[in-house]
Write a structure and sequence with these properties.
Structural class: alpha+beta
Distance between the termini: 45 Å
Largest sheet: 4 strands, antiparallel
Helix content: 10-25%
Oligomer: single chain
CATH architecture: 2-Layer Sandwich
Strand order of the largest sheet: 2-3-5-6
Strand content: 25-35%
CATH class: Alpha Beta
Radius of gyration: 16 Å
Order of helices and strands: EEEEHHEE
Number of helices: 2
Number of domains: 1
Number of strands: 6
CATH superfamily: GTP cyclohydrolase I, C-terminal domain/NADPH-dependent 7-cyano-7-deazaguanine reductase, N-terminal domain
């Protein structure tokens, strides 16, 4: 497998690099070819230890981020996704903004058939917030 030509552009997987990017703009999301592009199947990625900062108070926010997608021609490489998500740890942003940013960045890099990003944020002030963003928008569930 290590001699696969289509995997040679991956810069993080299999490398000892442990320096996390300081912000999402510095992070590099990477993809690899979908080996079953004609098959419609779901990939689910659970990220239970996500953290960011409230843009007003500077207090830390924590969340479980769930990413579900039907791939197109490519799939996201999970080590690069881990580094990308960790880059939000010092990022001041509202929860809704973060979920939509993750969706936009993943759509841009992967071009999936369907993508759902769900952020289940820990309660703050007695209110628990969940945000879900979907691509394409027509795939969103109606309330």
């Amino acid at each position: 497998m290590a001699d696969r030509e289509d995997l040679k552009n991956l810069s993080l997987l299999g490398k000892p690099d442990t320096r996390l990017p300081s912000c999402p703009e510095e992070a590099k999301l990477e993809v690899f070819p979908n080996q079953r592009p004609g098959r419609r199947y779901w990939i689910t990625l659970n990220c239970p230890e996500f953290s960011s900062l409230c843009p007003v108070t500077g207090q830390p926010d924590s969340a479980k981020i769930v990413i579900r997608y039907i791939p197109g021609d490519t799939c996201v490489e999970t080590k690069s996704l881990k580094f990308y998500l960790a880059s939000f740890r010092n990022q001041p942003a509202f929860n809704e903004e973060i979920v939509n940013r993750i969706l936009d960045d993943l759509v841009r890099i992967m071009k999936p058939q369907v993508l759902i990003v769900r952020g289940e944020f820990a309660p703050r002030g007695g209110i628990q917030l969940t945000t879900e963003a979907t691509f394409p928008e027509s795939a969103a569930a109606q309330p």
